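Shipment paperwork, digital attachment
Item: protein structure file
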Amino acid sequence: MAEQKEDKKWYVVRAVSGQENKIKNYIETEISRLGLDNFVDQVLVPTENVIQIRNGKKVQKEKVYFPGYIMIQANLSGEIPHIIKSITNVIGFLGETKGGEPVPLRKSEVNRMLGKVDELALEADQNVIIPFVIGETVKVIDGPFNGFDGTVEKINEEKRKLEVMVKIFGRKTPLELSYMQVDKI
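Attachment content:
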C-alpha cells in the first residue's frame, strides 16, 4: 500500500468558474461511489478569506483564489482521468495535450499553490501596511456618514482606526472610523 501513496501526484482540473466547490463535491462523491478512494487523496479548491462590509457589518467571505481551477492529488491510472473529465462542468486537466496524459504539477508549483493558501491565512492576522497617510482625503463608505469625504487627521495602527475630519453642515467634525469604513479617493 505504501508505494501507491508515492504514485499520487497533484493535478489541476479546469472547471467552470464559480462552480468549484460544487464540482469538488461531485468528484469526491463520484470517486467514493465507484470505490476508487485509494486512487484519490484529496480534492482542493484554494480559497482566501476576504472581509467585506455589508450593511455596516463585517462579513468574512471565502473567495476562490484560482477561479476555474481545482487541485487534485491522485493516481490517475486507468479510468480515473476519464471519470473526472466526464463530471458536469469539468473542462479537463490543465496541461494535457489533445488525447495526451494529464500533466502533474511540479513539486515547486504545488508548494507555491498550497503555500499561498497558508500565506494568505497568516497575512489576514497581521497588520499589513497602513493603507492611509495623514492629510489624505478619503471617502466614508460605511456608517451614518456614508458618502462624505474627509481628511485623515490621525492613524491608530493598533486599533486599525483613523480619525477623519469631515465637513458636516459647514462645520468640521472629527470621526473615528475603521480602515474598512473608508476608501481612497
